[in-house]
Design a protein that fits this description.
The protein has helices at 41-50, 52-65, 83-107; strands spanning 2-7, 11-16, 19-28, 31-38. It is α+β, with helices and mostly antiparallel strands.
C-alpha cells in the first residue's frame, strides 16, 4: 500500500494492488477518528472526473454520516476497511511521513 495524495487534516488517498482507499479524518468535538473505505468503481470514476474536490466531498460525507456510531444509518458503516488494510495504510503512512521529514531536513 502507498500514499497517493492527501488533504491535510481531511483525508489520505491510498493505493494497493490497483484499488483505491480513502481514509477520512472525522472529528466530532473532542472525539476524533479516521474511517477508511475502499472506493467503489463509481467512486473511482468520480475521482478521475472531478479530482481532489470529489475526495474532499466524500471525506466530508463520511464525516457527517458518523459511521462509527451504532445508531448511525451511514452508508459507509458496512464498508469499513479491514484491520489488515488499515494496518497496511498505517505502515505506508509512517514511511511516507519519514520520507517527507528526510526531504525537509535535506532542503535546509
Amino acid at each position: 500500500m502507498q500514499v497517493l495524495d492527501h488533504e491535510p487534516q481531511r483525508w489520505f488517498l491510498f493505493e494497493a494492488n490497483g484499488a483505491l482507499y480513502l481514509d477520512a479524518n472525522c472529528n466530532h468535538g473532542v472525539f476524533g477518528y479516521s474511517f477508511m473505505i475502499r472506493l467503489t468503481a463509481a467512486e473511482v470514476q468520480r475521482y478521475r472526473d472531478e479530482g481532489r474536490d470529489y475526495l474532499s466531498w466524500l471525506a466530508g460525507d463520511i464525516h457527517n454520516s458518523a459511521p462509527i456510531l451504532s445508531a448511525s444509518s451511514s452508508p459507509y458503516q458496512t464498508r469499513k476497511a479491514s484491520q489488515e488494510e488499515e494496518a497496511q495504510a498505517r505502515t505506508a503512512l509512517a514511511g511516507w511521513q519519514a520520507e517527507r521529514i528526510q526531504a525537509f531536513r535535506g532542503a535546509r
